[in-house]
Amino acid sequence: MKVNKKNPLAAGFSLVEMLVVIAVIGIIAAIAVPNIGKINDSAKDARKRRNAQNIASVFASAQAAGLDFSTGLTTESDIIGAVIDGGTVTEVGPFNGTFFGVPNVDKTVAGSETDGAAKYLSWDATNGLLLYTGK
Fold first, then answer.
1. CA distance to 8, 11, 94, per residue, from 5 (Å)
2. N or C: fewer beta carbons within 10 Å in the chain?
3. How do 121-124 and 87-88 pair as beta strands?
4. In this structure, are residues 62 and 80 in contact, taking their beta carbons and an 8 Å threshold?
5. For position 60, what pLDDT does the model report?
6. pTM here?
7. In this structure, what are the phi and psi dihedrals at residue 10, rounded to the nearest 5 degrees?
8. Among residues 51, 47, 59, which one has the least CA distance to residue 131?
9. How far apart are CA 81 and CA 61, in angstroms?
10. How many whole angstroms separate alpha carbon 44 and alpha carbon 61?
11. DSSP secondary structure letter of residue 91
């Protein structure tokens, strides 16, 4: 009977194989890392757009219910702030006592979510409309 002895130094990966694997991982990382940054920017932009859509929608709904956020306000940023803070309908009708506002939008910090949302909104003073432009 013949016994085969295995060389304990022959087991495992060679240095060249390890370097090839490390190089491949490095190439994959070099491709993936910049894309992760783009994904984060895209998510932030989508959040700004969603906030703008919500603000415009609440403004229009409140206006239809008899609550005018633009009364006494002239700047777009003031009107956006008023919509975020919200208000309650006081006119007699089916919406009396209904609150209209946009919760969970931070407007306290410079460069906040309202600034990002304002980029996608425009104030039409002639018709009294806050419009979502999407641009």
1. 9, 12, 91
2. N
3. unpaired
4. no
5. 94
6. 0.71
7. -80, -15
8. 59
9. 16
10. 26
11. S
- What are the tokens at 62? 């409140």
* Nearest CA among 123, 117, 23 for reference residue 70: 123
Closest CA to 53 of 98, 105, 17, 18: 105
Residues for the chain: how many in total?
135
Distance CA 62, CA 85 (A): 13
The two tokens of residue 47 are 């959040």
* pLDDT tens across the length of the chain (135 residues): 677 766 666 667 889 999 999 999 999 988 888 877 788 888 888 988 999 999 999 999 999 999 999 888 888 888 988 999 999 999 888 999 999 998 888 776 655 777 788 899 999 988 989 999 987
Which tokens sit at 115? Answer: 């600034």
Tokens of 18: 């390890």
Q: How far is CA 66 from CA 59, 69, 85, 121, in A?
A: 11, 10, 17, 21
In whole angstroms, what is the distance from residue 47 CA to residue 63 CA?
Answer: 24
> By three-state DSSP, how is residue 30 classified?
helix
What are the extents of the domains in the chain? 46-132
Over its C-alpha atoms, the chain yields an Rg (Å, rounded) of: 29
